[in-house]
Amino acid sequence: MVRFENVSVRYGEGAEVLRDLSFDIRPGSFQFLTGPSGAGKTSLLKLLFMSLKPSHGRVELFGHDTDKLCKEDLAVLRRRVGLVFQDFRLLDHLTTYENVALPLRVLGRTEASYRNEVVELLRWVGLGDRLTALPPTLSGGEKQRAAIARAVIAQPELLLADEPTGNVDPAMAQRLLRLFVELNRSGTSIVIATHDLALMDEYDARRMVLHEGHLHVLD
Ligand SMILES: Nc1ncnc2c1ncn2[C@@H]1O[C@H](COP(=O)(O)OP(=O)(O)OP(=O)(O)O)[C@@H](O)[C@H]1O
C-alpha cells in the first residue's frame, strides 16, 4: 500500500532531516512511529499524505509513484487517507457534528444516511453533548477527539495520526487507542506518531523509530 525507496528530506539548504528511508506499509497493518522531538515524525507523515515531496528517492502510495501524479490525482488519492493533524485543523465556522460529517459529505452521502453514524462516533469519543458546539469553544482534548472522529468516520484505507493522544488523560488515550484498533480490524492501515510510551506498551504493534534521520523498524 505504501513503499518508500531511499527517501530523503531536507528543508531548503539545511541538513537532511530524513535520510535514505526504505520501508513498506502493508494493507491492514498497525504501526507506531516514534522518536525524539524533532526526529522527523511529522515530516514522514507529510510524505505519507503527499503534502511534502522527498528531496531524493521514491514514494509509492496505493500503487502510484507520487512524483508522477498531478494535483487532481493527488486530491483523489488523499480521500483514501484519514489524517489527524497535530494542530487539529477543525473548521471553526462548522459545528463539531458538521466537522466530523464533512468527509462523508465530500463522498456524496446524504445526511439521512450518515447522521446516526456521526452521532454514535461522537458519543464514543465523549462528545455526545458537544454536537452543536463550534471548535473555538472546545477544550484542547475535545478538539483532538473531534479531529480523530473526523479522520476515522469514512473508514479510510490509511489512517495517519500525529500525537493523537497528546491532549487527553490516560483513560481517554486508551479509549482512543481502542478506536484505532477497531478501525484496523476492519481493514484500515494505521500509523500513529507518538512519544507516549505508555500508549505503545498498551498494544503490541510494529514500531518505526526515527533517530538522527534514520529509520529503525521493530516488527
Ligand atoms: N517547514 C520547515 N522548514 C524548515 N525546517 C523544518 C520544517 N518543518 C520541520 N523542520 C525541521 O525538521 C526537523 C524535523 O521536524 P518534524 O516536525 O518532522 O519532527 P517531529 O519528530 O515531528 O517533532 P515533534 O515530535 O517535536 O513534533 C526539525 O529539526 C524541524 O525544525
TrEMBL record:
Membrane topology field: Peripheral membrane protein
MF (Gene Ontology): ATP binding; ATP hydrolysis activity; transmembrane transporter activity
Cellular compartments per GO CC: plasma membrane
Highest taxon of the lineage: Bacteria
Gene3D superfamilies: P-loop containing nucleotide triphosphate hydrolases
Family: Belongs to the ABC transporter superfamily.
Subunit structure: Homodimer. Forms a membrane-associated complex with FtsX.
Biological role: Involved in beta-(1-->2)glucan export. Transmembrane domains (TMD) form a pore in the inner membrane and the ATP-binding domain (NBD) is responsible for energy generation.
Protein name, as recorded: Cell division ATP-binding protein FtsE
Organism: Variibacter gotjawalensis
Lineage: Bacteria, Pseudomonadati, Pseudomonadota, Alphaproteobacteria, Hyphomicrobiales
Gene: ftsE
